[in-house]
Amino acid sequence: xxxxxxxxxxxxxxxxxxxxxxxxxxxxxxxxxxxxxxxxxxxxxxxxxxxxxxxxxxxxxxxxxxxxxxxxxxxxxxxxxxxxxxxxxxxxxxxxxxxxxxxxxxxxxxxxxxxxxxxxxxxxxxxxxxxxxxxxxxxxxxxxxxxxxxxxxxxxxxxxxxxxxxxxxxxxxxxxxxxxxxxxxxxxxxxxxxxxxxxxxxxxxxxxxxxxxxxxxxxxxxxxxxxxxxxxxxxxxxxxxxxxxxxxxxxxxxxxxxxxxxxxxxxxxxxxxxxxxxxxxxxxxxxxxxxxxxxxxxxxxxxxxxxxxxxxxxxxxxxxxxxxxxxxxxxxxxxxxxxxxxxxxxxxxxxxxxxxxxxxxxxxxxxxxxxxxxxxxxxxxxxxxxxxxxxxxxxxxxxxxxxxxxxxxxxxxxxxxxxxxxxxxxxxxxxxxxxxxxxxxxxxxxxxxxxxxxxxxxxxxxxxxxxxxxxxxxxxxxxxxxxxxxxxxxxxxxxxxxxxxxxxxxxxxxxxxxxxxxxxxxxxxxxxxxxxxxxxxxxxxxxxxxxxxxxxxxxxxxxxxxxxxxxxxxxxxxxxxxxxxxxxxxxxx
Length: 589
Description:
Number of strands: 19
Number of domains: 3
CATH architecture of the largest domain: 4-Layer Sandwich
CATH class of the largest domain: Alpha Beta
Radius of gyration: 26 Å
Strand order of the largest sheet: 1-2-3-4-5-6-7-8
Distance between the termini: 42 Å
Strand content: 15-25%
Helix content: 25-40%
CATH topology of the largest domain: Metallo-beta-lactamase, Chain A
Shape: globular
């Protein structure tokens, strides 16, 4: 295990306590630096000596920070599922048998909260026995990124970037980039009872904490400073021992690089931190070492953003920017800026689109041909499908696998059933994947290859709509998510409905007009039907067949209509897409 985490001040010990679930063998299909990165992920417990601060590391993608107070424990960032949380709990109880007094979620991403019920219950939070601390927008972001908006397609893309559909091994998933592995089993959620705006100071179990809002990797990111201990819990503002993920290739809203490095400047660098404990990556000791890592990290973000804008202002386009913007050696050599998770090339492209939008100022791209139409034109120009296949094979034989993949994509795109073309593209992508140390890139290449050659196992897909997390969401939010399934061709005229969520007391109006759904907080006077149901039935209406769920609930006495009936409900829900279990293909486009 590398020793640089000790820093000049030392003061940190590591006690191994579990297996390393990353792939740690050297292999021809894994870049050596990626294997070395895996070997830093042994499971165990770091202790900040004399501070009562521990990091339970290597049991999940995120590491659990533990602070031992006078009469209780403070935990920061439970892992991605309850099973990993239970394994962390075993190590926690070796540290202390004191009760848990507070849990902090540093932000809404599931690897920082979904294992919480290994440690506490919702009842403990509701009673105030345990403080559950998060940013004010935490629950809104949980809702927006799971049941609303682009949640379904993000889930598919996450399976590709996280490698969920790959096995751990030389030809599959190697590590999680930020941690040894990332596979979610039972996901849970306890809703916060203590909210942070810009800043919150409080004392828990005799431990003073200053919590700051630091928008960065997530818009609701919070960091925690323990002033009496000299310990900074940097959350994911410092995103482990890798260049930060300024853009997630699974898909994300624009992560403003300026906001990110200015959060470091405002809330992290001014602190006299003797130790830094991130939510990903190992602890860092020594005030000088902490200051240098914070400086290098913010400088790397600033460099990529500033130089991208510099070259944008010279008229360069994304393909050019990727070649122009490369970290200087003084930054690229930092052990905290490796190419393991985030990456400069895809960050540069996102900065271009985030700042200027999709239009590259060439008017021929204002109304381009459909990509399948243009692919057919290229096939015709090259001389037909056989000529394209031969040219792509020749490129692959010459070692130019990127060009081979680009060429053969024209065949796959225009005829997804062309098996020789699919196999050649799969081979090219697999070779590209074996050559990159970046876990997200590797996983995307290899998963797409399996999609193309038919060896993909969709049964391993992440299930983002976990029952326990759905149970923590308001019924109104669940029903409003139907907005994204309105079929405007079926939704002519105006029709409305009303739902009373019996166990939460919510009244929700659903009004269809102009091809949109408006959710209101009152029942419309002209509702075609009004039904009273518990939130569990509401969830069934959203995620299953709403008419069948309502019919069964009425028969069982769990639901009752106060206006209209099942026929009116069936007519209303006929305006929406039904939920499909068909898998979305990503690699044949």
